[in-house]
Fold this sequence. Notes:
Layout: E1 5-10, E2 13-18, H1 28-43, E3 48-53, H2 76-84, E4 90-94, E5 97-99, H3 101-108, E6 111-114, E7 119-121, H4 135-143, H5 145-154, E8 158-159, H6 160-166, E9 171-172, H7 177-190, H8 209-221, H9 227-240, H10 243-258, H11 261-276, E10 294-297, H12 301-311, E11 317-320, H13 324-343, H14 349-356, E12 359-362, E13 373-376, H15 382-395, E14 401-404, H16 411-415, E15 424-429, E16 438-442, H17 449-461, E17 465-469, H18 477-494, H19 498-508, H20 514-521, H21 523-531, H22 535-538, H23 545-552, E18 566-567, E19 573-574, H24 577-590, H25 599-619, H26 626-637, H27 646-652
Parallel strand pairs: 2-3, 3-4, 4-6, 5-7, 6-9, 10-11, 10-13, 11-12, 13-14, 14-15, 16-17
Antiparallel strand pairs: 1-2, 7-8, 15-16, 18-19
Helix pairs in contact: 1-2, 2-3, 4-5, 4-9, 5-9, 8-9, 9-10, 11-26, 12-13, 13-14, 18-25, 19-25, 21-23, 23-24
The chain binds (2S,3S)-3-hydroxy-2-methylbutanoyl-COA.
Amino acid sequence: MTSPVNYTLTENIGVVTIDSPPVNALSRAVRQGLMEAMDTAAADASEAVLIICNGRTFIAGADITEFGKPLMDPWLPEVVDRIEAMNKPVIAAIHGTALGGGFEIALAAHYRCAVPTGKIGLPEVKLGLLPGAGGTQRTPRLAGVDAALQLMTSGVPIDAAQAMEVGLIDRIVEGDLREGAIKWAKDLAATGAAPRRTSEQEIPPCNAAVFSEYRATLAQRARGQVAPQAIVDCVEAAATLPFADGLELERSKFTELMDGEQSAALRHFFFAEREAAKIEGLPKDTPTRRVESVGVIGGGTMGGGIAMSFANARIPVTLVEISDAALERGLSIIDRNYAGSVKRGKLTEEDAAACRALVKGSTDYASLAEVDLVVEAVFEDPKLKKEIFAKLDGVCKQGAILATNTSYQDVNAIAAATQRPEDVVGLHFFSPAHIMKLLEVVRGNKTADDVLATCMQLAKRIRKVPVVSGVCYGFIGNRMLQPYAQQSQLLLLEGATPEQIDTAMEDWGMAMGPLRVFDLAGLDVGYKARQALSDAEKGEPATYLVPDMLVEADRHGQKSGSGYYTYDEQHRPTPCPEVHEIIRRAAAKLGFERREISDEEIVNRLIGALVNEGRKIIEEGIAQRSGDIDVVYVYGYGFPAWRGGPMFYGDAAAL
Length: 655
Ligand code: T1G
């Protein structure tokens, strides 16, 4: 088996080239190859050593497929120490994303350069870990405590220019990296540059209060997560202890995290997200259709957000509404959203203007004759949707993909309204559609393979996370939301208050408790839908009596200033005695005996409701795998990734 690490003596520079697709991860073979290359370079006439990678990126980290398996030598810290100990200058040349252990290899080198598009990062915290090969000790010595804490607790990479600014790289190489790096190595050797070991450098002075301040911030921003706090401990050690002692603390904290539940959950989630993008049984090379222009029907909140999702990926959009007035309203929603993105610093003025210019309005379906994809985003009226698809069938060119953004309706019935059901698919975006990353790709019985493959590829292009769902009421996410909502209603009637339920779930890790979610969505939406149903169709009164009574008391949710809570101008919720009274009246009317309910019971019943429905969804083949459901709930419903997703958690907690 040839080593993925190649060594050549080029112009008296020992060039170590790593070639281990797809991302040059630090597999055992790569670690062994690096150790052998250092031995060779130490013994030959090379004046300096260069570490560089072939393929798409510099080393993107430890090989996470090895995690959870017996550790095999050489360990990564040994490789890092071996590189740093070299008696001749070692230079790391970075392109792509030098992440995690990959950047720790670069930190072990004595000098670092990168191409302008290169990025460096320490994303271990996203796997519930911390940089475990000296990163917590070397980074602050080069960049200072503040920059080191930001880099490691956020896990967000920075670009070459930012890295240079804080001292994490020394030079940006324009043009060919290998050529430029070899030239720099020769210059360093010629000027007698010595090995510059980071571990021997003093840490820049810092304000000792920064650690307690950071801990307090993380207690809010990363509530319940252990890795961020461990990172602060290690950086504090770097600032207060000798290097060797700090390294020892890093090693023990890393091992603790690696063996912990949160890292297991986050590593599961890392692979689940990538697995979800693959469709069982669909050949990887399934052809895809060109999508260079899109039509969106309906300029409401969803239609506007969907139009932006495509425009932000530089795909021209035609937004169709039924009248000039409705179109004007739709376009003004988009203008407001772009202004908001610029205000929040998410987009520059220029980028926002360029994207906005790609959205054209029309009240004429004929304007959709040549688009490659249409997304229907009108309100949830099955009859209207079928009429629209019949019209599209007559207007759109052959091969155009016809998608519906419906949250619940039967995609097969919508497809049957056309002569081309194989071109029909569901693309279920989540509100706000230009921000939420989840995209449920709903596969109709007749949806063609190439249409599916095109949608999965397009999702990545518009920076969404796609999950395939079969056709059922509510697909994956909204279907699981039903029993979750029903349990929350039963808990209210049995004795819990809205604030107790929401606080219990938010302390457990949910981004937002169920009652606050329903206030945000609007209680009047469900109320209106129920008015069209018979009592039998409505289901158990216990599942809707309280929201009905709230709406009838003019408490429509956050948008009306009150729902389960009363809201101030900043939408901050306050518990409300009137609501407690309404709940008590509903419980009495339905004959519920009220009692004290523990937070533990609240969590178990609500999460249990999600898990049970998720298991049915898998049994019915609506979801391809349980990890897909985890991806849906983390990206679409604020489930904490550090608990792995409902299905991972349910199995681990034996729910
Ligand atoms: N190990 C093994 N495989 C990896 C990998 C890794 N670190 N990173 C990616 N892959 C695989 C991935 O599963 C997929 O495989 C393919 O590469 C393309 O990935 C001691 C302990 C690098 C930004 O957390 O962020 O170092 O599905 O689809 O969108 O301190 O992958 O094709 O078979 O994501 O272009 C720290 C994780 C590890 C980086 C590329 N490093 N990776 O994104 O492609 S912990 C990370 C990423 C660590 C040390 C600690 C991204 C990417 P397949 P992809 P992409």
